[in-house]
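Bumping with the actual sequence this time:
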Amino acid sequence: MTLYKRLVELWRGPDASHLVVEFDENLALSQAKTQELQMSKLVSSEMSGDYASAFLGQGLSFSELRDYQPGDDPRNIQWNVTARFGKPFVKVFREERQLRVVLLLDISASMVMTPRYLQALQFGSLLFSVCQKNRDQIGFGQYGNSLVNFIPPKSSRTHYRTLLYQLNRKPAPQEKTNLGAAAKELRSKLPKHTTIIVVSDFEGDEGYEELEILAQGHDLTCLYIPESELPDQHLGLVRLKAPETGEYSTRDISASSYRASSEKTSLSNWRAIERKLRTKGARPVKFDQNAARTFQSLIHSRRKLRH
Protein backbone atom coordinates (compact mmCIF):
# COMPACT_ATOMS: atom_id res chain seq x y z
CA MET A 1 0.00 0.00 0.00
CA THR A 2 1.42 3.38 -1.01
CA LEU A 3 1.93 6.12 1.54
CA TYR A 4 -0.63 8.24 -0.31
CA LYS A 5 -3.35 5.57 -0.07
CA ARG A 6 -2.54 5.02 3.59
CA LEU A 7 -2.88 8.74 4.32
CA VAL A 8 -6.21 8.82 2.47
CA GLU A 9 -7.52 5.94 4.61
CA LEU A 10 -6.37 7.64 7.79
CA TRP A 11 -8.12 10.85 6.73
CA ARG A 12 -11.37 9.01 5.97
CA GLY A 13 -11.40 7.32 9.33
CA PRO A 14 -12.32 3.71 10.16
CA ASP A 15 -14.59 1.81 7.80
CA ALA A 16 -18.03 0.97 9.21
CA SER A 17 -17.97 -2.42 7.46
CA HIS A 18 -16.89 -4.03 10.74
CA LEU A 19 -20.38 -3.27 12.00
CA VAL A 20 -22.00 -5.54 9.39
CA VAL A 21 -23.15 -8.86 10.77
CA GLU A 22 -21.96 -11.83 8.73
CA PHE A 23 -23.34 -15.36 9.01
CA ASP A 24 -21.50 -18.53 8.02
CA GLU A 25 -24.03 -20.90 6.45
CA ASN A 26 -21.95 -23.88 7.56
CA LEU A 27 -22.66 -22.90 11.16
CA ALA A 28 -26.43 -22.75 10.70
CA LEU A 29 -27.06 -26.16 12.22
CA SER A 30 -24.89 -25.57 15.29
CA GLN A 31 -26.41 -22.12 15.75
CA ALA A 32 -29.90 -23.63 15.60
CA LYS A 33 -28.98 -26.21 18.25
CA THR A 34 -27.49 -23.51 20.46
CA GLN A 35 -30.59 -21.36 20.09
CA GLU A 36 -32.85 -24.25 21.01
CA LEU A 37 -30.99 -24.61 24.30
CA GLN A 38 -30.91 -20.87 24.95
CA MET A 39 -34.59 -20.41 24.20
CA SER A 40 -35.60 -23.31 26.45
CA LYS A 41 -34.08 -21.32 29.33
CA LEU A 42 -35.36 -17.93 28.19
CA VAL A 43 -38.98 -18.94 27.55
CA SER A 44 -40.42 -18.93 31.06
CA SER A 45 -43.85 -20.16 32.10
CA GLU A 46 -44.87 -16.54 32.61
CA MET A 47 -43.85 -15.59 29.07
CA SER A 48 -45.65 -18.61 27.67
CA GLY A 49 -48.77 -17.74 29.67
CA ASP A 50 -48.68 -14.13 28.50
CA TYR A 51 -48.52 -15.36 24.93
CA ALA A 52 -51.45 -17.76 25.41
CA SER A 53 -53.62 -15.01 26.91
CA ALA A 54 -52.77 -12.46 24.21
CA PHE A 55 -53.00 -14.79 21.21
CA LEU A 56 -56.45 -16.35 21.38
CA GLY A 57 -57.66 -19.40 19.50
CA GLN A 58 -59.98 -19.54 16.53
CA GLY A 59 -63.24 -19.99 18.44
CA LEU A 60 -65.22 -22.91 19.85
CA SER A 61 -65.82 -26.40 18.55
CA PHE A 62 -68.32 -29.06 19.67
CA SER A 63 -66.92 -31.47 22.25
CA GLU A 64 -69.73 -33.64 23.71
CA LEU A 65 -73.31 -33.87 25.00
CA ARG A 66 -74.23 -34.03 28.70
CA ASP A 67 -77.30 -33.76 30.91
CA TYR A 68 -78.74 -30.29 31.33
CA GLN A 69 -77.80 -28.63 34.63
CA PRO A 70 -79.34 -25.54 36.25
CA GLY A 71 -77.56 -22.46 34.93
CA ASP A 72 -76.77 -23.92 31.49
CA ASP A 73 -77.53 -21.70 28.52
CA PRO A 74 -80.86 -22.91 27.01
CA ARG A 75 -79.51 -22.00 23.57
CA ASN A 76 -77.11 -24.96 23.86
CA ILE A 77 -79.88 -27.54 24.32
CA GLN A 78 -79.70 -30.30 21.69
CA TRP A 79 -83.43 -30.67 20.94
CA ASN A 80 -83.25 -33.82 18.81
CA VAL A 81 -81.48 -35.83 21.53
CA THR A 82 -83.69 -34.23 24.22
CA ALA A 83 -86.84 -35.40 22.39
CA ARG A 84 -85.44 -38.90 21.89
CA PHE A 85 -84.53 -39.53 25.55
CA GLY A 86 -87.22 -37.42 27.19
CA LYS A 87 -84.79 -35.29 29.20
CA PRO A 88 -82.76 -32.24 28.26
CA PHE A 89 -79.22 -32.53 26.92
CA VAL A 90 -76.86 -29.63 26.21
CA LYS A 91 -73.94 -29.30 23.82
CA VAL A 92 -70.53 -28.76 25.42
CA PHE A 93 -67.94 -26.75 23.51
CA ARG A 94 -64.20 -26.40 23.91
CA GLU A 95 -61.97 -23.59 22.77
CA GLU A 96 -59.82 -24.20 19.72
CA ARG A 97 -56.61 -22.93 21.29
CA GLN A 98 -54.08 -24.08 18.68
CA LEU A 99 -52.99 -21.23 16.44
CA ARG A 100 -51.34 -21.02 13.05
CA VAL A 101 -48.48 -18.53 13.27
CA VAL A 102 -46.32 -17.52 10.30
CA LEU A 103 -43.19 -15.37 10.45
CA LEU A 104 -42.49 -13.50 7.19
CA LEU A 105 -38.95 -12.09 7.04
CA ASP A 106 -37.65 -9.34 4.77
CA ILE A 107 -34.32 -10.40 3.19
CA SER A 108 -33.45 -7.17 1.41
CA ALA A 109 -29.85 -5.95 1.53
CA SER A 110 -30.76 -3.31 4.10
CA MET A 111 -31.85 -6.15 6.41
CA VAL A 112 -29.44 -9.00 5.66
CA MET A 113 -26.25 -6.93 5.41
CA THR A 114 -26.79 -4.99 8.64
CA PRO A 115 -27.22 -5.80 12.36
CA ARG A 116 -30.97 -5.73 11.75
CA TYR A 117 -30.85 -9.34 10.59
CA LEU A 118 -29.36 -10.52 13.87
CA GLN A 119 -32.19 -8.77 15.72
CA ALA A 120 -34.74 -10.40 13.42
CA LEU A 121 -33.09 -13.78 13.95
CA GLN A 122 -33.24 -13.42 17.73
CA PHE A 123 -36.90 -12.41 17.67
CA GLY A 124 -37.79 -15.23 15.28
CA SER A 125 -36.07 -17.81 17.47
CA LEU A 126 -37.95 -16.58 20.53
CA LEU A 127 -41.29 -16.54 18.70
CA PHE A 128 -40.80 -20.08 17.35
CA SER A 129 -39.86 -21.34 20.82
CA VAL A 130 -42.88 -19.79 22.56
CA CYS A 131 -45.20 -21.15 19.86
CA GLN A 132 -43.64 -24.60 20.12
CA LYS A 133 -44.06 -24.61 23.90
CA ASN A 134 -47.76 -23.82 23.42
CA ARG A 135 -48.04 -26.53 20.72
CA ASP A 136 -49.12 -24.02 18.08
CA GLN A 137 -48.49 -24.52 14.39
CA ILE A 138 -45.64 -22.36 13.15
CA GLY A 139 -44.52 -21.51 9.63
CA PHE A 140 -41.84 -19.38 8.03
CA GLY A 141 -41.22 -17.48 4.82
CA GLN A 142 -38.87 -14.88 3.39
CA TYR A 143 -39.41 -12.25 0.75
CA GLY A 144 -37.51 -10.02 -1.63
CA ASN A 145 -39.23 -9.44 -4.95
CA SER A 146 -41.52 -12.36 -4.10
CA LEU A 147 -42.20 -15.00 -1.46
CA VAL A 148 -39.33 -17.51 -1.13
CA ASN A 149 -38.35 -20.44 1.09
CA PHE A 150 -41.90 -20.80 2.41
CA ILE A 151 -42.45 -23.53 5.02
CA PRO A 152 -46.15 -24.21 5.86
CA PRO A 153 -47.21 -24.21 9.53
CA LYS A 154 -46.85 -27.43 11.53
CA SER A 155 -46.48 -28.16 15.23
CA SER A 156 -43.98 -31.03 15.62
CA ARG A 157 -40.64 -30.58 17.37
CA THR A 158 -38.82 -31.76 14.26
CA HIS A 159 -40.57 -29.01 12.32
CA TYR A 160 -39.57 -26.48 15.00
CA ARG A 161 -35.92 -27.47 14.61
CA THR A 162 -36.21 -27.20 10.84
CA LEU A 163 -37.45 -23.64 11.22
CA LEU A 164 -34.57 -22.71 13.53
CA TYR A 165 -32.12 -24.12 11.00
CA GLN A 166 -33.74 -22.26 8.09
CA LEU A 167 -33.79 -19.05 10.12
CA ASN A 168 -30.05 -19.34 10.77
CA ARG A 169 -29.11 -19.87 7.13
CA LYS A 170 -27.75 -16.70 5.59
CA PRO A 171 -30.04 -15.78 2.66
CA ALA A 172 -28.81 -14.07 -0.47
CA PRO A 173 -29.68 -10.38 0.01
CA GLN A 174 -32.28 -9.09 -2.44
CA GLU A 175 -31.70 -5.75 -4.17
CA LYS A 176 -35.38 -4.85 -4.10
CA THR A 177 -38.38 -5.88 -2.06
CA ASN A 178 -42.03 -6.17 -2.97
CA LEU A 179 -44.08 -6.85 0.12
CA GLY A 180 -47.27 -6.68 -1.94
CA ALA A 181 -46.24 -9.59 -4.16
CA ALA A 182 -45.21 -11.64 -1.13
CA ALA A 183 -48.47 -10.84 0.68
CA LYS A 184 -50.54 -11.86 -2.34
CA GLU A 185 -48.75 -15.19 -2.68
CA LEU A 186 -48.89 -15.86 1.05
CA ARG A 187 -52.63 -15.20 1.03
CA SER A 188 -53.10 -18.00 -1.51
CA LYS A 189 -51.18 -20.48 0.67
CA LEU A 190 -52.81 -19.96 4.07
CA PRO A 191 -56.30 -20.60 5.45
CA LYS A 192 -58.07 -17.62 6.94
CA HIS A 193 -57.45 -16.42 10.49
CA THR A 194 -53.73 -17.20 10.42
CA THR A 195 -51.56 -15.04 12.68
CA ILE A 196 -48.93 -13.42 10.46
CA ILE A 197 -45.95 -11.43 11.73
CA VAL A 198 -43.95 -9.50 9.11
CA VAL A 199 -40.43 -8.51 10.20
CA SER A 200 -38.87 -5.75 8.10
CA ASP A 201 -37.32 -2.28 7.97
CA PHE A 202 -40.09 -1.37 5.50
CA GLU A 203 -37.65 0.61 3.35
CA GLY A 204 -38.78 0.99 -0.24
CA ASP A 205 -41.54 -1.59 0.11
CA GLU A 206 -44.29 -1.63 -2.47
CA GLY A 207 -47.78 -3.09 -2.41
CA TYR A 208 -49.37 -1.82 0.78
CA GLU A 209 -52.74 -2.37 -0.91
CA GLU A 210 -52.09 -6.13 -0.92
CA LEU A 211 -51.09 -5.86 2.72
CA GLU A 212 -54.51 -4.37 3.45
CA ILE A 213 -56.23 -7.31 1.72
CA LEU A 214 -54.08 -9.73 3.74
CA ALA A 215 -55.11 -8.01 6.98
CA GLN A 216 -58.79 -8.44 6.16
CA GLY A 217 -58.60 -12.24 6.39
CA HIS A 218 -55.78 -12.69 8.88
CA ASP A 219 -54.36 -11.38 12.15
CA LEU A 220 -51.51 -9.21 10.84
CA THR A 221 -48.68 -7.70 12.89
CA CYS A 222 -45.75 -5.80 11.36
CA LEU A 223 -42.51 -5.62 13.37
CA TYR A 224 -40.40 -2.65 12.31
CA ILE A 225 -36.65 -2.94 12.86
CA PRO A 226 -35.01 0.49 12.73
CA GLU A 227 -31.38 1.24 12.00
CA SER A 228 -29.09 0.07 14.77
CA GLU A 229 -27.71 2.53 17.25
CA LEU A 230 -24.99 4.84 15.99
CA PRO A 231 -21.39 3.62 16.43
CA ASP A 232 -19.21 4.98 19.21
CA GLN A 233 -18.98 8.71 18.67
CA HIS A 234 -15.25 8.62 19.48
CA LEU A 235 -14.64 7.02 16.07
CA GLY A 236 -15.04 10.43 14.46
CA LEU A 237 -14.98 10.23 10.66
CA VAL A 238 -16.49 6.98 9.37
CA ARG A 239 -17.20 5.67 5.90
CA LEU A 240 -20.81 4.48 5.78
CA LYS A 241 -22.11 2.15 3.10
CA ALA A 242 -25.75 2.09 1.98
CA PRO A 243 -26.66 -1.64 1.73
CA GLU A 244 -29.32 -1.15 -0.95
CA THR A 245 -27.15 0.95 -3.34
CA GLY A 246 -23.60 0.09 -2.29
CA GLU A 247 -22.70 3.78 -2.23
CA TYR A 248 -20.24 5.13 0.34
CA SER A 249 -20.32 8.42 2.19
CA THR A 250 -18.08 9.87 4.88
CA ARG A 251 -19.70 11.23 8.03
CA ASP A 252 -18.39 12.73 11.25
CA ILE A 253 -20.45 10.68 13.71
CA SER A 254 -18.91 12.51 16.66
CA ALA A 255 -20.75 15.69 15.69
CA SER A 256 -23.74 16.31 17.96
CA SER A 257 -25.67 17.78 15.04
CA TYR A 258 -25.25 14.56 13.03
CA ARG A 259 -26.36 12.34 15.90
CA ALA A 260 -29.35 14.54 16.74
CA SER A 261 -30.38 14.63 13.08
CA SER A 262 -30.09 10.84 12.81
CA GLU A 263 -32.26 10.28 15.88
CA LYS A 264 -34.87 12.73 14.60
CA THR A 265 -34.92 11.07 11.18
CA SER A 266 -35.26 7.62 12.77
CA LEU A 267 -38.25 8.71 14.87
CA SER A 268 -39.86 10.42 11.87
CA ASN A 269 -39.45 7.27 9.76
CA TRP A 270 -41.08 5.13 12.45
CA ARG A 271 -44.05 7.48 12.83
CA ALA A 272 -44.65 7.49 9.07
CA ILE A 273 -44.42 3.69 8.83
CA GLU A 274 -46.65 3.28 11.90
CA ARG A 275 -49.39 5.48 10.39
CA LYS A 276 -49.25 3.72 7.03
CA LEU A 277 -49.48 0.25 8.58
CA ARG A 278 -52.40 1.20 10.82
CA THR A 279 -54.37 2.55 7.87
CA LYS A 280 -53.92 -0.84 6.18
CA GLY A 281 -55.29 -2.78 9.15
CA ALA A 282 -51.96 -4.08 10.46
CA ARG A 283 -50.72 -3.85 14.05
CA PRO A 284 -47.35 -2.00 14.04
CA VAL A 285 -44.71 -2.84 16.66
CA LYS A 286 -41.18 -1.43 16.91
CA PHE A 287 -38.16 -3.54 17.86
CA ASP A 288 -37.22 -2.56 21.41
CA GLN A 289 -33.55 -3.20 22.32
CA ASN A 290 -33.76 -7.00 22.38
CA ALA A 291 -36.02 -9.91 21.47
CA ALA A 292 -37.53 -10.40 24.94
CA ARG A 293 -38.50 -6.72 25.37
CA THR A 294 -39.90 -6.66 21.84
CA PHE A 295 -41.98 -9.77 22.52
CA GLN A 296 -43.45 -8.11 25.61
CA SER A 297 -44.24 -5.01 23.52
CA LEU A 298 -46.09 -7.25 21.09
CA ILE A 299 -48.08 -8.84 23.94
CA HIS A 300 -48.92 -5.40 25.34
CA SER A 301 -50.13 -4.10 21.97
CA ARG A 302 -52.51 -7.04 21.58
CA ARG A 303 -53.94 -6.65 25.08
CA LYS A 304 -54.32 -2.91 24.61
CA LEU A 305 -56.28 -3.43 21.41
CA ARG A 306 -58.68 -5.80 23.15
CA HIS A 307 -59.57 -3.37 25.96
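The C-alpha coordinates above came from a reply further down the thread. The domain at 3-55+98-306 is CATH 3.40.50.410 (Rossmann fold).
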